[in-house]
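Input.
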Amino acid sequence: MTLHLIKALKYGVATFFAIFLAQWLHLDYAVSAGIIAILTLADTNQQTVHYIGNISLAMVLSLTVASLLFYYLGFTVWVFALYLLITYPLAAWMKSGNAIAPCAVSVSHLLLDQTVAFPDLMNEFLLLIIGTGIALLVNFLQPSHQKEMAQLKEAIEDRMRTVLCSYADQLDRGTFFEQDHFVLALHELSQLIQDGQGLAARENANRMNQDTLYFKQYFAMRQAQSNVLYQIAESLQRLDQKTSQHQDLAQFLINVSEQLNERNPALGLSAELDQLIKTYRESELPQTRKEFELRATLFAILTDCKKFLKLKKNFYYESNFIYSH
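Output.
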């Protein structure tokens, strides 16, 4: 609902100022500036700029073709139709077909006034400049999503802590790891990350700066880590028997949950994980097939933990690079 209200406000403000400015400059068909402003407004600045490029190209093409046709063939409806027959395929070929409608309105002004004089052509170009310019200015005033993204960031880290602590609790207790213990938390985590990525994409399309790029990469990193958590969960389901290594792994997962902040390069955790892997390798060899399978599963979890920390470390250095340039 809020997005619809913001869009309605943008339409109203852009239309008013475009028409007001066109009237102040004593341009003919001033209302057309407001119509162009409405058509130019898009959800993001990138889309708005893209449409401005399309309509500018289509307007130059339209006024050029229409002027030649009207000058040599006369100001008649069939010539107007001929203009559309010629111009639209060319505009579509130049990927500007979506902007032909307002251009056709501008050409209709020439038809109604029975003129292709330079002042009349300039009138249409000025209406275009005013409409697109006001639309671009209004679009730059739309609210930022920085606060919402920061809140989602905190919620994602809280949910990740819940997931990791739930893994550690199951390992520490040695109970059979059932899917119901983690599936809801993982689903909620994925939804939060998707929401964050959606906001980051919208913000990046409106404001291409260091902060928006940071959040875009942050949510991508958390998405990759979420995928690793799913892999760990699948491995944990195969641990239906407690071993002496369970408690060490449980403590490590708790340590990870306490150091989730993206500003932490996880160097201490990486060293702890390397030591844990070394301890596992130096421990007594499995005596039964079941023990061997359990050991293999534990090593798979440790490998996934290494991936999890590597994603965190890579993001730490990439984000520092973003803010240093």
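The chain has two domains: 2-140, 146-323.
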